[in-house]
Design brief:
single chain, five-stranded antiparallel sheet, 2 domains, 218 residues, alpha+beta
């Protein structure tokens, strides 16, 4: 019997404790709000409003508006912090996935290059004959050919990424001999804008194309 009473008491106490804490917190918040907000606002308005009932009503309304504004600002800041943590957590997990992580990292770097937020994974911009000789495509040098790819080619090759337009996140990886590339003076950001716009965005006048014969076209 004693055991049953003890269990019932603990259960009842566990049920009542959250309600008691809530009531105490609400009373504490109301008292502090009256002390820090309501009374100062009422004192400020008292010289302008003689009717005490109207004064109290306006003071309570202004106090409520002030509290809503403060809570909204806190919520906005918390939401931003939460979203940043969420995306950081999501990005960290995605980057660890086989293959998908590599693709995601490349797309992220490409978007940063487009927006100019960080150093691009592309080292320079070139023209390559693609998809056939006589037709040229804009390419981005990613790295020099190494390992088996270099050992089994006669010429020294360079890894060049040729993006599709208007979506530069897809494209073709070409291994191009250095002597068959035409170097361009434009920046990576300028070239990406040109690709994304489908050629609508004009090139700056300062950009020149260096031909293999040494001459340049403006």
């Amino acid at each position: 019997m004693f055991t049953s009473i003890r269990k019932n008491f603990i259960t009842g106490f566990a049920v009542m404790l959250p309600a008691l804490i809530t009531i105490w917190l609400v009373k504490f918040a109301v008292d502090k709000t009256n002390y820090f907000l309501l009374e100062p606002i009422a004192d400020f308005l008292r010289p302008f409003i003689l009717d005490s009932a109207i004064l109290e009503y306006i003071a309570k309304v202004l106090t409520l508006v002030f509290l809503v504004a403060i809570i909204s600002l806190i919520g906005f800041g918390t939401r931003i912090l939460f979203l940043r943590r969420f995306f950081s957590f999501w990005e960290k997990n995605v980057s660890q996935l086989p293959m998908i992580g590599k693709v995601y990292g490349a797309i992220k770097e490409m978007s940063h290059a487009i927006l100019g937020q960080s150093k691009s994974i592309f080292t320079r911009v070139v023209l390559v004959a693609f998809p056939r000789p006589g037709i040229y495509a804009i390419g981005f040098v990613t790295s020099e050919g190494k390992g088996e790819l270099q050992d089994k080619t006669v010429s020294r090759v360079t890894n060049v990424f040729v993006p599709t337009s208007p979506n530069p996140t897809s494209g073709f990886l070409l291994l191009v001999p250095e002597e068959e590339m035409i170097k361009l003076d434009m920046s990576v950001e300028e070239a990406l804008k040109l690709v994304i716009s489908g050629g609508i965005v004009p090139l700056p006048e300062r950009v020149t194309i260096k031909k293999k014969d040494g001459n340049t076209d403006n």
